[in-house]
Design brief:
- The structure is a single chain.
- This protein is an alpha+beta fold.
- The protein has a single domain, classed as Cyclophilin (Beta Barrel).
- It is 27% helix and 21% strand.
- The protein has 6 helices and 10 strands, in the order H-E-E-H-E-E-E-E-E-E-H-H-E-H-E-H.
- Strands 3-4-8-6-9-2-1-10 form an 8-stranded antiparallel sheet.
- Strand 1 and strand 2 form a beta hairpin.
- It starts with 5 loop residues before the first helix and ends in a 5-residue tail after the last helix.
Length: 234
């Protein structure tokens, strides 16, 4: 067996360090394509289990052709039910899954402002997320009084002044904070959310006209994401 020279080891270590540095300089940009246009989003590193799971499904083209099957204006738009693909008109949707849950990754710095990508779930006590269903927050803008009322619905949560200001300017759904995992953020074209959410719907909040999606992602330089969308990583 040949011994590896010190020079070779140094070169290999240098290459490894370079590759790690390169990976840290890039991240995934997710594109949600809808009949009204595209939205671009990032996935948070603070929620690694959700990020990994979502990217895995996107890579498999799991979401392509699925519907936004539940919409509530001034609240959110929901999709990811595998049973929604080619579902007959009027069928009650929302129970489809992939056979597993993702452990909750609820963190106080990630909150339900407009445009966040969050995981749907059932009423399990661990607040574990659906393995595939998600929602994108629309919400609404709150004034001082109504925001205070909303925050009382999450008594164990402490809101920073910055978070409160976001709810009073951009808007969102503060009563969901602490109960669902927020794992991503739409970076542009928030009006697409408004367009989807405002469509006519039936008594089960399913749109009367199907709203299909296509989701894909690409790993690009963080600097480019910042330049295009103004997003920066902490």
């Amino acid at each position: 067996m040949k011994c590896v020279s010190l020079f070779t080891l140094i070169c290999l270590l240098g290459l490894s360090t370079h590759l790690v540095a390169q990976s840290k300089r890039k991240d995934y940009l997710v594109t949600f394509s809808t009949p009204w246009g595209d939205m671009h989003a990032i996935l948070h590193n603070q929620t690694p289990l959700h990020k990994k799971n979502f990217l895995k499904l996107v890579d498999k083209k799991f979401y392509d052709g699925l519907l936004f099957h539940r919409i509530i204006n001034t609240f959110m738009i929901q999709g990811g039910d595998p049973e929604s693909k080619n579902a007959e008109a009027g069928k009650l949707l929302g129970e489809g899954d992939v056979g597993y849950r993702v452990p909750a990754e609820i963190t106080p710095e990630l909150f339900h402002k407009k445009g966040v990508l969050a995981a749907a779930r059932d009423n399990n006590p661990e607040k574990a997320s659906s393995g595939c269903q998600f929602y994108i927050v629309q919400g609404k803008v709150w004034d001082e009084k109504t925001l205070a009322e909303q925050m009382k619905r999450s008594p164990l949560r402490v809101y920073t002044p910055e978070q409160q200001n976001v709810y009073k300017t951009l808007g969102g759904t503060p009563h969901l904070d602490g109960n669902y995992t927020v794992f991503g953020q739409v970076l542009d074209n928030l009006w697409v959310i408004d367009s989807v959410a405002s469509q006519p719907r039936d008594k089960n909040n399913r749109p009367l006209k199907d709203i299909p999606m296509k989701v894909f992602c690409k790993k690009i330089k963080k600097k480019k994401i910042t330049k295009l969308y103004g997003y920066t990583w902490e």
